[in-house]
Amino acid sequence: MTLVLATVGLGLNLRAWILLGPHLHERFAVGTGHYVLLMGLPLLVAALVRLPVGVLTDRYGARVMFPAVCLASAACVFGLGLTSSLPVAVLAGSAAGVASSAFVVGAALLSRLFPYGRRGLALGVFTLGPVVAALVSALSRGADQYGRGAAVVLGSSLIVVAALSAGVFRDPVGPHRRRSGLRRCVEMVVVASRTSLSLLYGLALGGLVAASIYLPVYLTAAFGLGWFHALTLTGIVIILSAFARLVGGWWTDRRPTARLLVACYMIAAGLCLVVAVEPRRWWLAASMIALGAVCDGLASGALLALIGKAARDDSAGAVMGVTGAVAALAALLPPLLLAGVSRLGHSYSAAWVLLAAFLLGVALYVRAHGLRVGLGLVVQFQPGPSATRMTVAVVGEPDMDIGAAAVVARVAELASTDELVVVFGSDADDRARDERGGGGRRRTDADDRARHERGGGGRRRTDADDRARHERGGGGLR
Fold first, then answer.
1. Residues contacting 215, CB < 8 A, separation 6+
2. Is there a contact between 290 and 81 (Cβ–Cβ < 8 Å)?
3. 28-48: string of b/e by CB count within 10 Å (b at 16+)?
4. For residue range 8-50, what is the model confidence (pLDDT) as tens digits?
């Protein structure tokens, strides 16, 4: 029930987050350039609020923060739907960026609720929220083209979700020392800047966010497609990428992630080159962008699972917040790059080539670093006072192949409080030796019995020889 409610709530909040776009185009007929700039405002708000919301989630729990986010989002949706003024609509739509932090709260909740072996799949199911958002968008456009009535329905639905989540969610937030929220935010920014995982996740998820927000206007401006046709293609891309994120989370529960990331980024780079070479055929460009979104979905789902597995329970919100903030900022780069290059060169091809080169560089980086990418986001841990003790941690090779992030996080936590001895190895050779040694021990026992019997007779012969030597010795003395 918790997973289903969190997924539905995420979908409604994501719809509220990007609700400004349809209103700008349908109601206020904003041009392409202004559309790109104004739609960057909800992304900036999302980048600013995700980390503080994550820190507050660690302190107060998802049972408090998820309803708070839903209610704030509902207020912004009501303001956007009921106003007739463009400045007020932009203000309300920009403030709706707070709705994106529902992702941070929900991901932190599921990271604490689900065990390590199922956490990737649970987070993958949670990321099906964009499918809910796409369905809500299609239904609302069919019932209310200009979106005023649909905005009221969406706001009311968010209030219902807020009430249900307050009653259903049970967030196991343990006691921890009270620290300044601002200081905690600064600490997490420093931690995230020291690891490449947050940047890789920001690149993958940022591409998906950029596609969901800017793809309609790109298809309209570059190929002259109708708005409804562009929205339909964007909805298909969002749904495909959401299911790809589910597969990526499932994969991380069972397989190492670095090879998957290399394949996703290299394929995405090749698809960008195809779009750059053949920029005039809209169906080819739309197909390549959809496949690229699938690659981004696989990569972001796998990376989200890694982050969820590496984060400690008392810092899951802060970790999700800082990585989500990086993703929101990264979502601004593709549209700004495409718009800037097209304005300078009157073509999008150069921008697609630059994106391909960047993705190829990322793929080579992941291939070079391998397991260090899979070790997850380093999480600071400040232990409380406790008696010194010794802990022996036995780590098997399969644990590091699949669960390196969680193993490293837990060992680091133990090392900060205990005298730690880590025993590492693989029991595959031991099992093989045991299987061979079973028959070997039987043969050894038989050999021992034979040697014992031979040894008994040998001892009898030796006693006779001793008596003979004694008699001869006696005669000799006599």
1. 230, 233, 234, 237, 289
2. no
3. eebebeebbebbbbbbebbbb
4. 999 999 999 988 888 888 888 888 778 888 888 999 999 999 9
Nearest to 321 by CA among 248, 243, 379, 406: 379
- Amino acid letter at 163? A
Q: Which CATH class is domain 2-172+180-374?
A: mainly alpha
Tally Cβ neighbours within 10 Å of residue 360: 17
Integer-rounded Cα radius of gyration of the chain: 31
Tokens representing 132 are 């809910």
**C-alpha torsion 284→286→289→294, nearest 10:** -110
CA–CA separation, 160 and 166 (whole Å): 10
Question: Using 50, 70 and 90 to split pLDDT, how confident is the model at 75?
Answer: very high
Give the burial string for 452-476 (b: 16+ CB within 10 Å, else e).
Answer: eeeeeeeeeeeeeeeeeeeeeeeee
> Highest-confidence range of 255-259, 267-271, 321-325, 365-369, by mean pLDDT?
267-271
- 318 with 101: CB under 8 angstroms? no
For the chain, the straight-line distance linking the first and the last C-alpha, in angstroms and rounded, comes to: 105
HSE (side-chain half, CA atoms, 13 Å) at 297? 27
**Which two tokens mark 301?**
């789902």
Closest-CA residue to 325 (of 103, 109, 121, 124): 103
